[in-house]
Amino acid sequence: QTGLVLLxxxxxxxxxxxxxxxxxxxxxxxxxxxxxxxxxxNGIMVQRGERTEFITPGQSLPSG
Length: 64
Description:
64 residues; 50% strand
């Protein structure tokens, strides 16, 4: 539990952003060791090394 919760996605076809905790991040940005690799209307895909996780609003970034 990192305490960094995906609060929502501001969807835009060209420049979508995600709100994680108090941070606003875009594709390619890093937060808490995870890189945002994809932003969709219903959630975001984050990657750390070989591991990828799909996070939906209300979920926290994985701590591992």
